[in-house]
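Chain X:
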Amino acid sequence: MTTKLTLTIDDTVIDSAKKYARQRGKSLSDIVENYLKSISVSGESVQTLSPRVAKLMGSVKLPEDFDYKKELGKVLKEKHG
């Protein structure tokens, strides 16, 4: 069953979120639902980050269109010929 939810969110956040969803070919509802699922999973499957790793989160800023799989492929090709 699907239920309608009303949220109060800043307009700029909504605009950015809609752009993000559109770029990925998804609806904003799908993005929000998947996020809520990801934070509400049972404690058994959630891994706790070490303080050292948690401190590093957000320290690297990449362009929105960054394709890590493509970059990884380049590096592996260079490494292994």
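Chain Y:
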Amino acid sequence: MFDLFKLALCLYVIVRTIMPLPTSRLVKIIVAVALVVISQHHLITRITTGNMFSPEVPRAVMISVNIGFVFIVLAAMMQLLSDIISVLIALVKRRQVRVSLTPRAIIIALSLGLSSYGVSQALRVPSLKEVTLEIKGLPQQFDGYRLVQLTDLHLSRLFQREWAEATVTAANAIGADLIVITGDLIDGTIEARKNDVPPLGDLRAPDGVWVIPGNHEYYFGRPEWMAQFKALGMQVLENQHTLIERDGASLTLAGVTDRSAVPFGQEGPDLQKALAGSPPDNVVVLLDHQPRMAQNAADLGVDVQLSGHTHGGMIWGFDRIVAMFNNGFVSGRYQVGDMQLYVNNGTALWIGFAVRLGVPSELTVITFKSV
């Protein structure tokens, strides 16, 4: 159904926006065929590789495909708005309204410009974003404690070694006490990403670099990838916790597996297991890739949950749709009972829809304040 919907959007753009243009029939046919192929690139990747999450084609091709796909989405939205306005005018005037070529030219220019800009914004190394969380019961020893949250790096043919090196350099330059990565580090097999992942081994923080799996790790062999992350010096939390200590005080850092584990026959997220044995009075910071189960975490006494997964919705306005699939959580800070949830827009995003318009990527430093 997803592929049919995309095809319908594409055909709508072709019929209503492209075909009326005063250009040669051959040019319009070439453009139409190219748009149809681009609209089905997820299906093509799925047929040729077995999934749609790691097309191993040249980076320039994937950049072009993303620009084309975003163009289709934006052009369809703009054309639909134009058609609705035309219908309303026709109803008011009680006669058919002839639409000039100017609106179509504007739609094409705007859609192409915005899609090119949006893809370029998705591909950049993110700017620093500072967030302060005031936490009740936080020991004074942790007042001013700083951690860097990375999430949804999606190392792939779009986000390659050079991008990873620049991101790691920027993260290390913050000088935070702790670095956490809340899932979806990769898209692709270990062999496919062998040149792109090693820079993550250069991440450094006094209290370590801690990682949990996201849904994409399960698509490419979670056990192998988690072992690879350990080999790079990162420490893994899968339904486990660790204690971060400062001058006789401690806080609990817990991490759970992803909800995608169960269909793969692996252990799903188990917060009770993750917290078993944790000092009962400790402030608990939970790493959970997906934010949708935040209420459950709040009910179990978690103080702070850090998540990703949503990419912030990617396009301003589209975030409302993404929120519907994540219990309303899509970007930024939320108060869930007595717990604070922070949903990171993502350090990068999935190669299959790499665009950011009004929803910037984040290199996020979170500072804890005791109250």
